Amino acid sequence: MGPCAVLPGNPVQVHWNLDDFSGRAEDQAAALDSLRRECETIRRLVDDFYEQGYLDAFLQSKRTGDLVLENMSDGVIAHDLNRRIFYFNAAAEAITGYKREALLNQDCHQVIPGGLCGAKCLFCDGGAPPKDVVNKEVEIVTASGERRRIFMSVNSMADQAGKPVGVLACFRDVTREMNLAHRLGAIEQFAGIVGRDPKMLALYDLIPELAESSASVLIQGESGTGKELVAAALHYEGPRAGKMFVPVNCGALPEGLLESELFGHVKGAFTGAIRDKKGRFELADGGTIFLDEIGDISPAMQVKLLRVLQEGSFERVGGEHTIKVKVRVVSATHRNLQKEMAAGKFREDLFYRLSVVPLVVPPLRERRLDIPLLANHFLTQLVAGKTISFSPEAIDFMLDYNWPGNVRELQNWIQFALIKCKGDVIQRDHLPPIALNPMALTKIPTAPERPTPPPMRGRQRLTRESIEAAIAQAGGNKVEAAKQLGVSRATLYRFLDENG
Fold first, then answer.
1. d(CA 294, CA 247)
2. Helix (H, G, I), strand (E, B), or coil: what is residue 126?
């Protein structure tokens, strides 16, 4: 008889120790008598199971448990160590659109494209169940093709002996809450990227969609805007999250060393090559390679990189064996590659291979409403539980600054201010000396002196002229100008950002 399918931990196995029948003939009678006694014990226990209500109690207990699970608002799915589903409740059907009859005893990755884990679970590569409870937010595609965001709690299941037997996952649909939070501007960060400016919210919307694709992405933006964070999000929010994310700063390496870093080399290929070495493309096989500062590579390296993008193959430096890889390429640059192409410094065919999907990360000065949010984020990271805040003057000064170094420069400011600040409030004079240079500020040209405008209530009455007059009257202090206009500082800056 072949093995029968049983639910993890049930039923409890009973082992009967029977005497060995082999041996002398006179021993067989005793062995047969032992077998009869054991069979009588089994018959009596089975009779008790049926006649004394044990079976009814067992079935009632099972019906009660099923009733609870079937009426939960959270989806529940359970599978064994081979990813075969043996439980899928009604809420799971409603959230995913899949019917349990089509899923039970099936590999979840085969019947649910991408899996409910978003192709990010430990079982994707034959790993072991999680030792601790894992909470995560993933995007799934329902049976009808609709994208939904779910919050999932994953836990390992073990039998009575403590041996892992499968995984239990509970999940709920948070798509509506996420959309509502988005519309209200309540989302402050995504995948490690901090910001709630409309430009950043649009980026948050785009990243999950691009993460599912294998198309090459070119991220453009000034230095210090966080292009590598966006590249990492494109990797970790998609099905390649279980593979490697391999960053390479192309602008920091000379051409000879860059070729070896990207493609690897064989022993003896050049002085110092004492062993074979894998390149970054090999390490990123199945995952993502991030080519930062791609606009800085030489024309010769552009040709070699183009071949990899076209054919998915290359040779190590000094080697003859062709290596094939399947890698998603994400690149970034602070340069204007259209101008570089016009000047003959960057190949058009390479540009169009890299820029299947172009992304632009806005500079900090174009999302000023994120400055206080980012400043407090960095402050929280650096003070290790201490209570330190910014004075209104310090915040106002940061809002006025031009930020040529963008988010990276802001982070450096906070580190500098914490060194100078001996109290619990960071003041304007705790900021770096460069910040005190008036030439570094983004000033609105002052208009001829006019009478102080009357207080205004509500953003709809703001005009460019009234704002300029208020700022001029306040000597360039936008906090004071906002008070004169009867609006919040955030409203004033939002109007300036949206109206140039």
1. 12
2. coil
SS3 174: coil
CATH 3.30.2350.10 fits 189-360, yes or no: no
Beta-carbon count within 10 A of 353 CB: 18
CB atoms within 10 A of CB 166: 22
- pLDDT for 370 equals 93
Q: 314 pairs with which residues across the strands?
A: 323
- Own/partner long-range contacts of 490-494 (Cβ < 8 Å, ≥24 apart): 490/369, 491/459, 491/462, 492/462, 492/467, 493/368, 493/369, 493/399, 494/369, 494/459
Measured between alpha carbons, how far apart are the two ends of the chain, in Å? 79
Measured CA to CA, the distance from residue 321 to residue 461 in angstroms comes to: 70
Closest listed residue to residue 462, CA positions, set 438, 489, 493, 485: 485
What is the fold, at CATH topology level, of the domain defined by 365-440? Answer: Helicase, Ruva Protein; domain 3 (1.10.8)
Model's pTM, two decimal places? 0.64
Query: What CATH class does 73-176 carry?
Result: alpha beta
| pLDDT attached to residue 443 | 42
β 357-360/217-220 pair status: parallel
Do residues 98 and 116 touch, judged by C-beta distance below 8 A? no
Contacts of 115 (CB under 8 A, 6+ apart): 108, 109, 121, 124
Which H/E stretch holds residue 324?
strand 322-324
DSSP state, residue 128: P
Cα(32)–Cα(18) distance, integer angstroms: 10
Structure tokens at 402: 């031009």
Amino acid sitting at position 492 = L
Q: How far apart are CA 207 and CA 216, in angstroms?
A: 13
The domain spans of the chain are 25-52, 73-176, 189-360, 365-440
Whole-number pLDDT of residue 464: 74
List all residues 6 or more positions away from 319 whose beta carbon is below 8 Å from its beta carbon. Answer: 264, 265, 266, 269
pLDDT along the chain (500 residues), means of 10: 40 53 63 79 76 67 69 85 86 88 83 66 59 77 82 84 85 79 67 88 88 92 94 89 90 86 87 86 94 94 92 90 94 94 94 94 93 93 85 91 93 93 91 63 41 42 74 75 75 71
